[in-house]
Amino acid sequence: MAFQIGTFICKVAAIILLAVPCEGQHLKRFRRFNRLRVTSNETVIKDQWFIQKLDHFNGADSRTWKQRYFVNDKFYRDGGPVFLMIGGEGPANPSWMENGTWLLYGQKMGALCLLLEHRFYGQSHPTTDLSTENMHFLSSRQALADLAHFRTVMGEAHGLTKSQWVAFGGSYPGSLAAWFRLKYPHLVHASVATSAPVHATVNFPEYLEVVWRSLASENPECPLLVEKASDTLIERLKEPKTFDAITKDFKYSDP
Predict the structure, then answer these.
(1) pLDDT higher than threshold 70 for residue 1
(2) Among candidate residues 169, 194, 219, the one where a domain is terminated
(3) DSSP line for the chain
(4) Distance separating the N- and C-terminal Cα atoms of the chain
(5) Which backbone phi and psi does 135 adopt, to 5 degrees?
(6) How far apart are CA 141 and CA 119, in angstroms?
(7) I need a labelling partner for 31 at 20 to 30 A (CA). Which of 76, 168, 221, 226 fits?
């Protein structure tokens, strides 16, 4: 049993982009499509939905689903780049469209800022359940194809095909950003891959060492207590008498 806890690593990135003019007046056209509205001084970011393919690698499978995304166009200037923030292993948060270093870049460069939620996370549900059969569609390969399809269709629909698209992501989405640029260089001008583990490692103890130091920075006893709790839980899960009670407490069930 693997014990996983979140990391508190601060992520930083720097990027230098060359902005080039694009033909056409796309700002008004896109804002008619956009459902971002401003009430008084408060920006309200609304859910939007993109019709996505279920399986990008099976031409005989025509099934589709609705993938959630968000738009912030308040910085956009005609001919500016398109910034695409990639969602990861959790719900996409609309607050990401209001705060963050990438928005400072967007404001400086007159960028249109988009956020695409990762399949099977948040409200982006490609299938009705999480059965083993359906988990076949959860892969970074399919996620990259989602990004490519989204970029292509949105570019064609809103006159952004010739715009410079820049992918952003941190941690796993950072890996996706790097791979997106590598696999689809004709679609992505540049990528900002922050804290991106692009090389797979079977045994990666350094990750937990960073987490240990993060916990200890709050309280030196904290990582010791977490370790003790984890070891105790593992031992109790080995006992049939306590296994059922623990799984019930943790509300775990097989899909």
Answers:
(1) no
(2) 194
(3) ----------------------SS--HHHHHHH---EEETTEEEPPPEEEEEES-TT-TT---EEEEEEEEE-TT--TT--EEEEEP-SSPPPGGGGTSSHHHHHHHHHT-EEEEEPPTTSTT--SSSS--TTGGGG-SHHHHHHHHHHHHHHHHHHTT-TTSPEEEEEESHHHHHHHHHHHH-TTT-SEEEEET---S--S--HHHHHHHHHHHHHH-TTHHHHHHHHHHHHHHHHTSHHHHHHHHHHTT----
(4) 18
(5) -65, -10
(6) 11
(7) 168
**Single-letter amino acid, residue 254:** D
Q: Say what the pLDDT of residue 215 is.
A: 93
Residue 104 has a CB neighbour count (10 Å cut-off) of 11
- Confirm whether 133 is domain-assigned: yes
Smallest CA-to-CA distance from 91 within 74, 70, 65, 105 is with: 70
From CA 213, how far away is CA 77, in angstroms rounded? 43
Q: Which residues pair with 68 in a beta bridge?
A: 49
pLDDT tens figures, 181-202: 999 999 999 999 999 988 878 8
Torsion sign, CA atoms 102, 104, 109, 113: positive
Q: Is 168 a domain residue?
A: yes
Q: 232 and 190 in one domain?
A: no
Whether 68 and 163 share a structural domain: yes
- Alpha-carbon distance of 189 to 181, in angstroms, equals 7
Q: Does 109 score more than 70 pLDDT?
A: yes
- Domain region containing 238: 205-249
Write down the pLDDT at residue 17. 31
Flag whether 237 is in a domain: yes
- Residue 231 CB neighbours (<10 A): 11
